[in-house]
Write a structure and sequence with these properties.
Distance between the termini: 58 Å
Oligomer: single chain
Mean pLDDT: 83
Number of helices: 30
Strand content: 5-15%
Structural class: alpha+beta
Strand order of the largest sheet: 1-2-3-4-5
Helix content: 40-55%
């Protein structure tokens, strides 16, 4: 649905926003020259190729080709529309978007995501106020105090309490004029089985609001205060909440993750809160789901390529299975991960309260790599009898086969051989018999494949004409003073790439750009993602163009095109003389392209001669 935002307000928001600040919420950036460099959030890569230009207020990844301005970044990363991206930035910088200029119909359609955020916020306030109510929330407060949760943490994470009645929240929403259909979309109310009305999803539970990085409430988790089942209840998937892409506590942890270059990943709300309460702010929790590649991508953007992830899992069978599942996820994301195994019967929450933060940090310093953890666990489980060793090797086949780094695999095989007393060659042979398709596909990292953006751009980048055409567009973007000469000499008429020609004409027609050189504003005029990417890739360079260099490039290009025209005529004549029909047809097609591109007649092309 289209949301009306005045153009002057969009311009104000764009000029207020700093793309480095916005991107830094997601990517750990380091300053390199005029630009900032980091690991791309849109594909997996070992070496940083994601570049952000504070001067031009644009970004570009030289690995996957993504590029754009601050709005493009949020649209791509958050999966939102342009108006939603504008609203997100406006909220961040405290800029009000006037609604009085909207029609009644436009106000009704003000964006589903925004309305869901608004309902979630109202629900969070309702739950929090219930917890703070000396009568209604006393049982919940007593429970939290018993678990050692302080008032400061309650306020910091806006913990709440859902009353035990079936419709307390529903009645509050009705009083606020919030429709049942909208509230149902947020997941906080559920339709009755008989189809007659709704009831509250969360009842008699401690409530944990789940925030995104922009501090918007995207969902909730609820925990009972006794032995009832289910112990935990989470919001369902909604237009704003996807548990595979969300991490509890991320809004709080992001700053500390960047500072320390490390992150603890736990499995529960109270585990996360306990770490924070004990001064370990660089912690997040998964939300009732296995760790996904999206989770790791988010974390990697915060801790950088040399960062460390420590999984805090139980040493039971469930913890071992979780560790096994995470191997390939971390391997493909080039993330260094270790596992902190706590003593039997302890989770992070109970361990911290019993032994303290220093003991926890000491244990974390000795955390095992994932494969080492699995080796230790298998040996402990099966023992070192002949049958136990055979079962241990069998258990490690899959995990070791998933390691694509041959050196790392070799070292782990050596470790396994030392633990079991089995010859390394025998273990290697056993692993080779395991066919793991993901191990083979893992060598084809999607981020290493350059995106073929358009015919005539990346796909034929070796062609000299295309290289020069790209240089000319880059020159126009980085040195706008040369644009009048480009226009007067009709340089673009000689371009082979239609896409580059269109971009060139856009630059020529965008008069404001000639004056201010605002690449970000230029890109805002485009609806074509491919063109935005190309502009970002060509504008983000740090080339220094002077008048002499610009004119030399133009002259070189025009002379080359004229020389090609003369050479082509000779080649056509020679092909005719040799009766080489295949070559002749190819050359005539090239001639026709030149003719159509230049808008000249065949006779003019031949210099007045009849062909």
């Amino acid at each position: 649905m289209t949301v009306f935002i005045p153009e002057d307000k969009v311009a104000e928001i764009k000029h207020t926003a700093d793309i480095v600040d916005i991107v830094s919420e997601v990517v750990l950036l380091k300053k390199t020259g005029k630009n900032h460099l980091g690991l791309c959030p849109f594909h997996t890569e070992k070496t940083p190729s994601f570049t952000v230009s504070p001067d031009k207020q644009i970004f570009h990844c030289f690995g996957c080709g993504e590029g754009g301005n601050v709005f493009s970044f949020l649209m791509k990363h958050n999966g939102v529309s342009f108006p939603e991206a504008v609203q997100m930035i406006a909220r961040r910088y405290g800029i009000d978007i006037p609604t009085q200029s909207m029609s009644i119909e436009q106000k009704k359609r003000f964006g589903e995501r925004e309305r869901i955020f608004s309902v979630n916020k109202a629900a969070m306030t309702f739950f929090y106020n219930n917890l703070m109510n000396v009568t209604a929330g006393q049982k919940a407060v007593n429970y939290l105090q018993k678990r050692g949760i302080t008032k400061e943490i309650i306020e910091q994470f806006r913990l709440g309490y859902a009353p035990g009645t079936w419709d307390s929240l529903l009645k509050m929403l009705q009083k606020k004029g919030i429709s049942h259909s909208l509230a149902h979309k947020t997941g906080i109310i559920v339709p009755r089985g008989n189809g007659n009305g709704y009831y509250d999803r969360f009842r008699d539970r401690i409530i944990f609001p789940i925030f995104d990085r922009g501090m918007q409430v995207i969902g909730f988790g609820g925990r009972v205060m006794d032995d009832s089942l289910p112990k935990y209840l989470n919001s369902p998937e909604t237009p704003v909440y996807n548990k595979s892409k969300s991490l509890y506590g991320l809004h709080h942890a992001k700053k500390e993750c960047r500072k320390t270059g490390a992150v603890f990943i736990v499995e529960g709300y109270f585990d996360l809160i306990s770490l924070v309460q004990h001064g370990l702010g660089n912690a997040v929790a998964t939300l009732g789901t296995a760790l996904t590649s999206e989770h790791v991508q988010i974390i990697r953007g915060l801790i950088g390529k040399s960062g460390k992830v420590i999984l805090v899992y139980d040493s039971d069978e469930a913890g071992i299975k979780a560790a096994r599942r995470s191997i390939e996820v971390f391997e493909k994301s080039f993330v260094d991960a270790g596992i902190l195994v706590l003593p039997t019967g302890h989770d992070p929450d109970s361990y911290l309260f019993e032994f303290g933060v220093e003991s926890f940090q000491k244990a974390a310093a000795g955390s095992l790599g994932i494969i080492s953890f699995l080796i230790e666990s298998a040996v402990k489980k099966y023992g070192l009898s002949i049958e136990g060793k055979i079962q241990t090797i069998s258990d490690l086949q899959g995990p070791l086969s998933a390691i694509t780094n041959s050196v790392a695999r070799s070292l782990y095989i050596k470790e396994l051989a030392e633990k079991t007393g089995i010859d390394e060659a025998a273990i290697l042979e056993k692993i080779r018999t395991t066919s793991v398709k993901t191990a083979h596909s893992g060598n084809k990292w999607p981020g290493h494949a350059i995106d073929t953006m358009v015919a005539g751009h990346d796909k034929t980048s070796q062609d000299k004409w295309k290289r020069i055409e790209e240089q000319i567009i880059a020159m126009m973007l980085q040195s706008p003073g040369i644009i009048p000469e480009i226009r007067n000499k009709k340089v673009l008429d000689n371009f082979e790439s239609n896409t580059l020609k269109q971009i060139g004409h856009l630059i020529i027609e965008h008069k404001d750009f000639h004056v201010n050189g605002d690449v970000s504003n230029l890109m805002a005029c485009l609806n074509d993602n491919t063109q935005r990417r190309i502009i970002a890739s060509l504008a983000i360079g740090e080339d220094i163009w002077n008048d002499n260099g610009c004119r030399k490039l133009i002259a070189q290009f025009l002379n080359s095109r004229n020389n090609r025209k003369k050479t082509l005529l000779k080649e056509i004549k020679a092909a005719e003389d040799r009766n080489d029909h295949e070559l002749l047809l190819k050359l005539l097609k090239e001639k026709q392209i030149l003719v159509s591109r230049k808008g000249i007649s065949i006779l003019e092309f031949a210099g007045g001669k009849t062909l």
